[in-house]
Amino acid sequence: MEYEIFKEKLLAELRDFYGQDADVRTVKDIADDCGKACEGIQISLCQKAGSSESITVNIRALYEKVAVGSIDICDCMETIYRELEGKINSDYSSILERGKDGNEEEKGREI
After folding, report:
1. CB burial class (10 A; 0-12, 13-18, 19+) of residue 81?
2. Which of its termini does the chain have fewer beta carbons within 10 Å around, N or C?
3. How far apart are the first and last CA of the chain?
């Protein structure tokens, strides 16, 4: 599968999976692990409270793994899902530790 076909297929799968609850788009010139510019997919989830969680994933890195057969498109979806869910859970834990208004004193208070 060629890179452009892979990218479009992955975008379509992500848009289908997240539906209207997310903005899924490509972004140019993100830095990879070596600092080299590459293309990414940015997924922004709209939360009920008006906040938005997002991640940007290096498309080329996923494509290279698909090209050699070490993963498939379903594995790419799972990787992205787990990364986004991990960010949401991490941010939520941070809020719980600080309290809703950022006050450290609310940390252990029961509601």
Report:
1. middle
2. C
3. 53
